[in-house]
Specification:
36% of the residues lie in helices and 19% in strands. The protein has ten helices and nine strands. Its EC number is 6.3.2.1.
Length: 307
């Protein structure tokens, strides 16, 4: 399909797999409308750039849909940053990002400016509800309204029928699924497992802020989550106590929260799947992580069920 038969305004043709960059709402919308009209599924991978293997795992998951066109958005969304957060310093590496996307065969990149996304300013936002008040919402009260608003806009702009998000931002994933359900959006939301370094550190664009010493200290997050999850057969109290003991041994880490929740972020069950979530500051860098916890059965119980 070329730009001429997709009604895009650019003179350059659209070539699948070439990660062509679109910066205007109308242009990417015209392209994706034409694709959908032709019966082609469109999958969106929303990112803020500074791409790493975690982002590329989302792309690869999206590419498994038969006949799909994969769009990656790169937009550092000002609405989800509160005053004093790292909006200005957040890494912006568009050229390098596009090269990575081209290497894995992404079809198109949507990289708008803030003015293109919010030409009239942030007038209308989406309220995340009660599930947006806890965990991250307690520490970043305006964050999820900004996230849901931009995701809603990106869904509408790209005409996608699939969207892929990483489980590292687990609360974000749950709230986006909630929004899609509650607002009757015709988008299927896919969660993709966390990608980690060999030593367990969850991949994050913010990891580049860490000094060598801080990066070593940051391993405490995954170590605490792993330790907690491995005593899942002993119940919720033991999971939390074990994870907290790991942090207690590292007083240089400032923990914002360490909580065990149900998969829907409600109360954790006495027995069954749950999620252990943490946010902590290592130096000046705030990191989040989480892990699935099979409460009451433990991983041994899961192994037995699979046999």
């Amino acid at each position: 399909m070329t730009s001429q038969d997709s009604d895009t305004t650019s003179s350059q043709p659209f070539t699948p797999g070439q990660a062509r960059v679109y910066t205007e709402v109308n242009e990417i919308s015209q392209l994706t409308r034409a694709l959908r009209k032709a019966g082609r599924p469109v999958a969106l991978v929303p990112t803020m750039g500074a791409l790493h293997e975690g982002h590329l795992s989302l792309v690869k998951a999206a590419q498994t849909i038969p006949g799909v066109t994969v769009i990656v958005s790169i937009f550092v969304n000002p609405l989800q940053f509160a005053e004093g957060e790292d909006l200005d310093s957040y890494p912006r590496t568009l050229d390098a990002d596009v090269e990575k996307l081209k290497a894995v065969g992404v079809d198109a990149v949507f990289a708008p400016s803030p003015r293109e996304m919010y030409p009239n300013g942030p007038r209308t936002t989406i309220h995340p509800g009660e599930a947006g008040r806890i965990l991250e919402g307690e520490h970043r009260p305006t964050h999820f309204a900004g996230v849901l608003t931009v995701v809603n806009k990106l869904f509408a702009i790209t005409n996608c029928d699939h969207a892929f998000f990483g489980e590292k931002d687990y609360q974000q994933l749950i709230l986006i699924q909630q929004m899609v359900t509650d607002l009757n959006m015709q988008v299927q939301v896919h969660g993709v497992p966390i990608v980690r370094e060999a030593d367990g550190l969850a991949l994050s664009s913010r990891n580049i802020y860490l000094s060598d010493e801080e990066r070593e200290l940051a391993l405490t997050l995954s170590a605490a989550l792993t330790a907690g999850s491995f005593v899942a057969d002993r119940g919720a109290d033991e999971v939390l106590a074990t994870a907290r003991s790991i942090f207690d041994a590292k007083p240089d880490i400032e923990v914002d929260y360490l909580e065990l929740k149900g998969l829907d972020l409600g109360e954790a069950p006495e027995e069954g799947p749950a999620r252990l979530l943490v946010a902590a500051r290592v130096g000046t860098t705030r990191l989040i992580d989480n892990v699935g916890v099979p409460l009451g059965t433990g991983f041994k119980g899961l192994d037995e069920q699979q046999q």
